[in-house]
Amino acid sequence: MTFFRSLLACLALSTATTVAFAAAPATNSAPPASAPAKKEATARGKTAGQPAAPASLFDSYIKDLTTALNLTDAEKQEIKTYYLDDGPELKNILNDETLSPLQQAREVSDLRSARNARIETLLDDWRRQHEFLKIEARYRVALTELAASGGPAAATSPAAPAAK
Asked: Which residues pair with 51 in a beta bridge?
């Protein structure tokens, strides 16, 4: 369990750094204080100290993407499929005790990069691609934690057959 906490701390630090660079404006002006804090709390699935249900976190993420990127139903479904397809592999990486935290972080990063490249290809212009990366960065840690605990992939997988 300590190993998993160390990994999450490493991923959180990595994400915070990535978010800071990816979301930083071109000028040195300070970002608005209230909106990002509220978005960050929502992205982590917490409002007033209560964790959000896993499905609602993923649904909020997809809703934010749909609104900001003006996604068609087909684009929205394809993006959902990419995340759900990556869920089991991400869970395996994060729960593999034979990998060091650094190895896990690298494998998670490689998986995320491959998925994001597929999504960027789906989005037809650079403005939508840039906005996608900003939104994905805000949700990254929460979605990783969600996948590690079974995530949306577990919630959508078919029920196991009953033993006879």
From this structure: 46
Q: Pick the closest to residue 16 from 113, 142, 100, 130 (CA basis).
A: 142
| Residue 127 in domain | yes
CA angle 22–110–151, rounded 5-degree value: 90
How many domains in the chain? 1
**Residue-range definition of the domain harbouring residue 72:** 2-16+53-155
Q: Contact at 8 Å (CB) between 147 and 94? A: yes
CB-CB contact of 75 with 104 (8 Å): no
- Domain contains 96: yes
What pLDDT, in 10s, does the model give residues 86-109? 889 988 998 999 999 999 999 999
Please tell me the pTM assigned to this model: 0.59
Helices (H), the chain: 2-23, 34-43, 54-69, 73-94, 101-122, 126-148, 151-156
